[in-house]
Amino acid sequence: MTMFDAKQIANWFLAKHKAMMIEDDAIDPMTQMKLHKLLYYAQGVYLAVSDDRLFSNDILHWDHGPVVEEVFQEYKGRKSIDDDITEHQLSDFRTVNSDEMVNSVLEAVYDKYAEYSGSQLRNMTHSERPWMETKHNEVIPVELIRDYFKSEVVE
């Protein structure tokens, strides 16, 4: 199993979302807030089903929910983050997609959570143990995420 970087997983979500927007113009653009919550849910589900991390980056407890700082810095100050998908993002999509288990987890997470807005996802994460049991600006422990997703999210 290859562990990915959160930016690669973010690029998977951005490319997937852009493709869905092209098919259905009622789908809203991806926001940074929504992307971070999808990364959190992807990490949680993957931890629950495999006991391994999907990506190596830490997830932090910020005011608006779980955030991966490296991805935040990449899109800082931008509201819409999926205007144009670059060749680099498509390359990351293909690389991530080539791992069957990772792809199936990401597809499941996207199918379950992409319909929600960033604000709705923020509110959902605020009611979940990993966020509630971690102090502001601290790393949300991987073990806490894994245990929560094993007991509460993944069936």
Could you explain how this protein is built, in words?
This protein is mainly alpha-helical and 155 residues long. The chain has one domain. The chain has eight helices and two strands. The chain has a two-stranded antiparallel ribbon with strand order 1-2. Strand 1 and strand 2 form a beta hairpin. It is globular. InterPro entries: SocA_Panacea.
Strand order in space, largest sheet: 1-2
Distance between the termini: 22 Å
Radius of gyration, in angstroms, nearest whole number: 14 Å
Following the backbone from N to C, one meets helices and strands in this order, namely HHEEHHHHHH
Strand content: under 5%
What's the helical proportion of residues?
55-70%
What general outline do the C-alpha atoms trace? globular
Mean pLDDT: 92
Total strand count, please?
2
List keywords for this structure.
single chain, 155 residues, mainly alpha
Summarize the structure.
With 155 residues, the protein is mostly helical. The chain is built from eight helices and two strands. Helix 1 packs across helix 2.
Topology:
Blueprint: H1 6-23, H2 32-50, E1 60-62, E2 65-67, H3 69-75, H4 87-97, H5 100-113, H6 118-126, H7 129-132, H8 142-153
Antiparallel strand pairs: 1-2
Helix pairs in contact: 1-2, 1-4, 2-5, 2-6, 2-8
